[in-house]
Design a protein that fits this description.
The protein has three domains: 59 residues, no CATH class; 207 residues, Rossmann fold (3-Layer(aba) Sandwich), CATH 3.40.50.300; 172 residues, 2-Layer Sandwich (Ribosomal Protein S5, domain 2), CATH 3.30.230.10. The protein is 24% helix and 27% strand. The chain is globular, with a radius of gyration of 26 Å. The structure holds thymidine-5'-diphosphate and magnesium ion.
Length: 467
C-alpha cells in the first residue's frame, strides 16, 4: 500500500498539498475561483492562476522562519530609539532620494522599464559601497560575465564586490548568511523563486513569497537590500502591488529610456521624504548625477516662443525649474483632444473649465496638448498657472518674456492659491537669472528682491492680463 502511494506522488510533493488559487496582480489578494473582477480591489481581468504547493517540511532555516521570540506588550517610551545609521551610495542624487543615504536593514525596491538603467545604477552604487561595507550582487538575469564586463567597461573599482548568480531564495539567503554583506542587491526580484511554491518564477505568489523572505532577512540581520523590479507596459510593477507594502522605500525610474536623462523618484520612503527626485544623465560611462537639474529641463530659446512657460516646481525638498509647453490648435473632432505628457490630464480639463468660466476664454473648439520638457513628471498643483499661461500664449500666439518664471495653484473659483515654499522657489528663479516672476499674492516676498520684478496675483484674470 505504501509503495503504491509513493509511486503515485511525485518527488518533493510528498507530504505536500497542491492547491490551485487565483492571485490578483493588482492587489495581490487570493481567490479560490477565477472571476472577471477581483473581489477585493475591483480591478478587471487581473486574476491569474497559480499552483501552490505548501510543503510541510521546514525548509527555511529557523533563522528566517519569522519567529521573533516571545511577544510582549510594552510602553512606547520604553522602546529605545536607535538613530538609523546611513551609508552613502557614492551618488549624492541617490542618497537624496533615499532620504540621506542607505539605511542599514532597509529594503529598497527599484522599479522601472526594462533597459532604463536599474542594473547600471546598482552596479555603480555597489562599487562605491564596497569600499566601505561588504557587498553582494545577486544576478538572476545577466550572467556573471555580463555583470563583470559591464563593471569593467564602466571603469569601476570592483575588487571588493562579491557576485552570485542564483535565483533560489533559500540558497541566496544561505550564501548571504555566510558572506554577511552589509548591502545585498537582488537583480531582479522577478527571477527569484522559492521551493515552497510550485508556481513559475515571476508569478504573483513567487514574487511575493521571495520578497517576504528577503525583507525578513534584511530586518533580522541589519542588511540593506536593493530589490530590482520590472515594470509592466501598463506602468505597474510586474507582480503584486503588495511588494510596495513590504519594503521600506520604493524608487521608480521615470520618463522613457530614449531620453538622455533619468529621473528617479521616491514614491514611498519610511526614512525620508516622498516625491524626492534624483536626476541622472546616461552616458557611455554609465549614469552620472546631475546636481543642477534646473539647467537641463529648460530649453533656453534664443527668441521668445509662444506656448512656452518656465515654472518653478518643488519635487521633494528641492526647487527645480521646468519648462511647460503647450500647443493649442483648432480641432475638427467632436471631442477636442486634451493630451498631457508629464502632467495629470484631468487637471488640464479642469483648468480649461476654470479658464472658460472665470477668465472668459473658451477652448472647447481647440485641441490642447501640454508637455513638460525633458521627461519629468510634475504632480503638484503649483503647475496650474504655468499650464494655463502656456495654453493661452499658444492660442494667441503671444510669447511670454524669456526671463519670466511662474508658479501658483488655481482654484475652482478662479482664485490663485498660494503654494508651499514660495520663497525657496523665487530664490531658485533668481539664481538662474530670471528677472520676473508671477506668483500667488500670499507667496509675495515681504522684502523686495534686488533685480526681480514680482507680479503677485490673486485672481486668474489678473494673471491673464499679464499676457
Ligand atoms: P540596464 O542597466 O541594463 O537596464 P535595466 O537593468 O533597467 O534593464 O541599462 C541598459 C541601458 O543603458 C541600455 O539601453 C544601454 C544603456 N547604457 C548606456 O547608455 N551607457 C552605459 O554605460 C551602460 C552600462 C548602459
Ligand atoms: Mg537589468
Amino acid at each position: 500500500m505504501a509503495a503504491i502511494k509513493s509511486a503515485g506522488s511525485k518527488g518533493n510533493t510528498q507530504g505536500a498539498r497542491r492547491k490551485t488559487v487565483f492571485n490578483c496582480t493588482e492587489c495581490g489578494s487570493q481567490a479560490p475561483k477565477w472571476a472577471g473582477q477581483c473581489g477585493d480591489c475591483g480591478a478587471w481581468n487581473t486574476l491569474i492562476e497559480d499552483v501552490i504547493t505548501t510543503s510541510s517540511g521546514g525548509k527555511i532555516p529557523p533563522r528566517y522562519s519569522g519567529y521573533a521570540g516571545e511577544s510582549a506588550v510594552c510602553n512606547i517610551t520604553d522602546v529605545k530609539a536607535i538613530k538609523a545609521s546611513r551609508i552613502s551610495t557614492g551618488f549624492s542624487e541617490l542618497d537624496r532620494v533615499l532620504g540621506g543615504g542607505l539605511v542599514n536593514g532597509s529594503a529598497v525596491l527599484i522599479g522601472g522599464d526594462p533597459g532604463i538603467g536599474k542594473s547600471t545604477l546598482l552596479i555603480q552604487a555597489i562599487a562605491a559601497l564596497s569600499q566601505r561595507v561588504g557587498t553582494l550582487y545577486v544576478t538572476g538575469e545577466e550572467s556573471l560575465q555580463q555583470v563583470s564586463m559591464r563593471a569593467h567597461r564602466l571603469g569601476l573599482t570592483t575588487d571588493k564586490v562579491r557576485l552570485l548568480s542564483e535565483t533560489q531564495v533559500q540558497r541566496i539567503l544561505a550564501l548571504a548568511d555566510k558572506e554577511k554583506p552589509g548591502v545585498l542587491v537582488i537583480d531582479s526580484i522577478q527571477t527569484v523563486y522559492t521551493d515552497q511554491l510550485n508556481s513559475a518564477p515571476g508569478s504573483v505568489s513567487q514574487v511575493r513569497e521571495s520578497a517576504a523572505h528577503l525583507v525578513q532577512y534584511a530586518k533580522q540581520t541589519g542588511t540593506a537590500i536593493f530589490l530590482v523590479g520590472h515594470v509592466t507596459k501598463e506602468g505597474a510593477l510586474a507582480g503584486p502591488r503588495v511588494l510596495e507594502h513590504m519594503v521600506d522605500t520604493v524608487l521608480y525610474f521615470e520618463g522613457d529610456s530614449s531620453s538622455r536623462y533619468r529621473v528617479i523618484r521616491a514614491v514611498k520612503n519610511r526614512f525620508g521624504a516622498v516625491n524626492e527626485v534624483g536626476v541622472f544623465d546616461m552616458s557611455e560611462k554609465g549614469l552620472r548625477e546631475v546636481t543642477n537639474p534646473s539647467a537641463i529641463f529648460v530649453s533656453r530659446h534664443e527668441k521668445p516662443v509662444s506656448g512656452s512657460v518656465i515654472m518653478v516646481t518643488r519635487e521633494g525638498t528641492r526647487p527645480m525649474l521646468v519648462e511647460v509647453q503647450a500647443l493649442v490648435t483648432e480641432s475638427h473632432l467632436p471631442n477636442p483632444r486634451r493630451v498631457t505628457v508629464g502632467l495629470d490630464q484631468n487637471r488640464l480639463a479642469m483648468l480649461l473649465a476654470v479658464l472658460q468660466r472665470h477668465g472668459g476664454i473658451a477652448m472647447y473648439d481647440q485641441d490642447v496638448f501640454v508637455n513638460i520638457v525633458g521627461g519629468v513628471r510634475v504632480s503638484e498643483t503649483a503647475a496650474d498657472l504655468a499650464v494655463i499661461l502656456s495654453a493661452l500664449s499658444s492660442m494667441r500666439d503671444k510669447p511670454l518674456p524669456t526671463d519670466l518664471a511662474v508658479f501658483g495653484e488655481i482654484g475652482l473659483a478662479g482664485e490663485i492659491r498660494p503654494v508651499q515654499n514660495g520663497q525657496e522657489r523665487i530664490k531658485e528663479a533668481v539664481q538662474h537669472g530670471y528677472k520676473r516672476v508671477i506668483v500667488p499674492l500670499a507667496n509675495k516676498p515681504a522684502q523686495p528682491i534686488k533685480g526681480l520684478e514680482v507680479i503677485a496675483v490673486q485672481r486668474l484674470v489678473e494673471a491673464i492680463e499679464q499676457l
